[in-house]
Amino acid sequence: MDSSPCFAPNTRDDGEEEPFKVICIARYMTKLVLFVLPSTTMRWSMVEPPTSPSLERMSCFDCVRCCFYWTQPYGWSDHLMVLDTCTLRFSTVDLLTGYHLELSYLPDQSFGHRHANAVVMGREGALEMFSLVGQHGSFALYHTSLKNSSQQWKLEKIIQLPEQYHSICTMRAAEGFLFIQGAPEGIHIGNVDCYSMEVRTYEITKVCTKMENTFNPRRALPYFSFPPLFSELTI
């Protein structure tokens, strides 16, 4: 069994204390199960999705408007699996429609578990995604959106990424930012550069450099949307 505990995102902006939930996502060999601990009862309950997902294709999730979206760690799947953390109900979103069909056929030269797709909070209620594609030694993010209850993904913009890296992966999206990691060519363990990109403006900023295994990059864990009880102390 592989388990990943996390907090359900805080839905209030006024800073007031409110009940929160701890969600533990447990992946067994044949099924996915959620264990939920509400602060109001402090008792665990269990929730199962209505259909069994393809567990070997699931990566970490992105959180958008209190929903968790799972994408494949590499390649494309037919749909996104979605969990509403307020109602604890599962649903799916069609993925291979519109421009995504063209994107899935591109000769991608990236390799490894690069976490290719990231779901982000879009403009005016749109669901948006950034997909990483590597071709001819360079990398680009393809920004697509699903607007106005449309079932077709539309291309918004292609963003070229810094060219000095042998490999690049997207790590996680949160609060209007996408986090990117670039590794130089050469040794497998070395200094990698971490960037943030503001989704609204596409502005890319270098955040830090750290030691990392470039063949097994870890997901970023940005510190956002925790209940006030677990937020940093302020004066």
UniProtKB/TrEMBL annotation:
Organism: Triticum aestivum (Wheat)
Protein name: F-box associated domain-containing protein
Top-level taxon in the UniProt lineage: Eukaryota
